[in-house]
Each structure stands twice: as structure tokens, then as C-alpha cells.
């Protein structure tokens, strides 16, 4: 049987981008069984635009309007629970896929069932010769980055296994989703948004799943702000991005692993917290959320440990 694929897009004031995104999904050479648009209480015309766009397609495009902004992670979990397809493509509304994007990813994953996630070559809309992401990498002090970000496209023409895939245009297998979910959550709802894709990649890798970058699958990512330009990022983005790294580390690190990198880790933490204290003190308020969520994080850490030793 032909593997089934659903596409889910979480929107928040995405009226400028959503129609082009949906058009590209509908033009995929691989059949898309279902398209879910989950709107997180947009205050613009996103919902009306999507409903108008979707009307000719009947139940093929489903629109769900949340009464409040639940965040990227909970909204995508919501979509995952509403589908039963073999694969789920998690897609940002500001991404436009090439028409063979899905076909390339599914073809590889079907031939390599140990691969639970895959992504393509995402290019910045603002510069067609510049990479946005070719997957995720993580360094020795557990800082995660988009692989190849800001580098010339021609340097990233070779497909390869990677640490993980960016949630901007990520294909996940249902088997992996079910295998690594914790407390019924694939994406950790405590993250709200930002680095939830890194957390999934880390957890999946620990549990034996592989991730893959397919250079032949191409998408264009608008992105609301340039990487490395902190001044253009809203405070809530900086806070979530900052604290979610520590949530991720708390859940996924075992004792001996962080001890090996302790000198580098301490040097980095002293530097970054000193910088935040002087330049961005409001970001440090995110630690309140960490301590408030610690009981939940502790439970999830325990479940991950249990899965590792099953």
C-alpha cells in the first residue's frame, strides 16, 4: 500500500503567507491525504483566508480555530492526535515547498525504516543562494543550530544523516511519533514554542531513531527575522529560546555526559548569564517558568529514562 501523508500547519497572524504555503502543498507530486490548519487565535484575517481558500477542497483541508494561542508545540500535538496517517509533515506557514519535497522524503524513509524524521534543503526567501536549514546540529555544550544556516547553497548539495530536523518543514513517521511520545505528547507542551524540534531530535536519537537531510527536496523559508539578529527578535522568542535549552538538557542529559563537558559548559554559562544580566535582564525572567514547570519536567525525564532501559 502507498504510505499516507498528512500535512499540518500552525498559524498565528499568518495571513500574508498561508495561501502560498497551501498552494505548494496541494501541488505536491505525492498525494496528501489530509491538510490541517490549526490557528492559534490569530487577530488578523488568517482564518477567513484559509476558509475561503479551502472551500473548494471540502474536507481535504480542515481548519481548526483555537480560542487562545496554545503555542507551537501543543497545537502540533493537537494535529497529530487528529490524524492517523503513516507520516506527518509539520510545516510552517511561511515555507513554500518545491513540488517533489514530500516525494523525496517519503521515498527515502520507506527504504530506510530506521529513519524517523527527514527534511529537505530549506533556502532563505530573502536570498535564493543562502541556506536557511539543512537539519539540526548540537555542540558539546548542547547549543543547537540550523545546519548550514547563512552559508552558500552550493555547499550543501550532498544528502546525509543529521542530528535532527528543523520543525519548519519536518517529516515524521507515525511509528517514531508513537515510540518516543511522552505522556501522550510528541512535542513537549512545556516548551510552548522554540527548540521543541531539537528536543524531539535528541529524544529520538537516544531511542535509536535516525534523521536524514535530503538535498533534492527543496523548500523556501521566509523567516520573520534573520538568524543572529537578536535585536529583531521579540522578547517572548528570546525567552522561550533561552530557557527551553535548559528544559531540554534537564530532560535528556545523564550525569556522566554533562560531566565530560563541565569546564566548557561552566565557562559558557557564566558568560551568557553575565551578558543577559547586563544587556537583556528580562530574558532571565524565563527561569521562573523553568522552576514552575520542574515537577512536570522531572516526570518526563523519568519516562525517558524508563524508555531507554526497557
UniProtKB/TrEMBL annotation:
PANTHER family named in the record: GALACTOFURANOSYLTRANSFERASE GLFT2 (PTHR43179:SF12), RHAMNOSYLTRANSFERASE WBBL (PTHR43179)
Protein name: Glycosyltransferase, GT2 family
UniProt pathway annotation: Cell wall biogenesis; cell wall polysaccharide biosynthesis
Family matches, as InterPro entries: Glyco_trans_2-like, Nucleotide-diphossugar_trans
Keyword presence, Electron transport: no
Family: Belongs to the glycosyltransferase 2 family.
Gene3D superfamilies in alphabetical order: Spore Coat Polysaccharide Biosynthesis Protein SpsA, Chain A (3.90.550.10)
Gene Ontology MF annotations: glycosyltransferase activity
Highest taxon above the source species: Bacteria
Keywords per UniProt: Glycosyltransferase, Transferase
SUPFAM superfamilies: Nucleotide-diphospho-sugar transferases
Record field: transmembrane: none
CDD domains attached to this UniProt entry: GT_2_like_c
Organism: Fontibacillus panacisegetis
Amino acid at each position: 500500500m502507498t504510505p499516507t501523508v498528512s500535512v499540518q500547519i500552525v498559524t498565528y497572524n499568518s495571513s500574508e503567507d498561508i495561501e502560498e504555503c497551501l498552494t505548494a502543498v496541494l501541488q505536491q507530486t505525492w498525494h496528501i491525504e489530509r491538510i490541517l490548519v490549526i490557528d492559534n487565535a490569530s487577530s488578523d484575517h488568517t482564518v477567513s483566508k484559509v476558509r475561503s481558500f479551502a472551500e473548494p477542497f471540502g474536507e481535504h483541508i480542515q481548519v481548526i480555530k483555537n480560542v487562545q494561542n496554545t503555542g507551537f508545540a501543543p497545537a502540533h500535538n493537537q494535529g497529530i492526535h487528529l490524524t492517523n496517517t503513516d507520516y506527518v509533515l509539520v510545516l510552517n506557514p511561511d515555507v513554500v515547498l518545491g513540488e517533489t519535497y514530500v516525494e523525496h522524503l517519503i521515498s527515502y524513509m520507506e527504504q530506510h525504516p530506521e529513519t524517523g524524521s527527514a527534511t529537505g534543503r530549506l533556502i532563505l526567501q530573502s536570498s535564493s543562494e543562502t541556506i536557511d536549514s539543512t537539519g539540526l546540529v548540537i555542540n558539546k555544550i548542547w547549543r543547537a543550530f540550523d545546519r548550514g544556516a547563512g552559508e552558500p547553497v552550493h555547499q550543501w548539495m550532498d544528502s546525509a544523516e543529521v542530528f535532527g530536523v528543523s520543525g519548519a518543514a519536518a517529516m515524521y513517521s507515525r511509528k517514531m511519533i508513537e515510540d518516543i511520545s511522552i505522556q501522550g505528547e510528541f512535542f513537549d507542551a512545556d516548551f510552548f514554542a522554540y527548540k521543541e524540534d531539537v528536543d524531539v531530535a535528541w529524544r529520538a536519537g537516544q531511542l535509536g531513531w535516525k534523521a536524514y537531510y535530503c538535498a533534492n527536496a527543496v523548500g523556501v523559508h521566509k523567516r520573520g527575522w534573520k538568524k543572529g539578529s537578536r535585536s529583531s527578535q521579540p522578547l517572548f522568542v528570546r525567552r522561550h529560546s533561552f530557557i527551553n535549552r535548559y528544559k531540554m538538557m534537564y530532560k535528556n542529559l545523564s550525569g556522566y555526559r554533562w560531566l565530560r563537558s563541565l569546564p566548557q559548559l561552566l565557562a559558557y554559562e557564566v558568560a551568557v548569564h553575565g551578558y543577559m544580566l547586563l544587556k537583556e535582564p528580562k530574558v532571565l525572567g524565563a527561569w521562573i517558568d523553568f522552576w514552575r514547570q520542574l515537577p512536570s519536567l522531572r516526570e518526563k525525564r523519568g519516562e525517558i529514562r524508563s524508555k531507554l532501559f526497557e
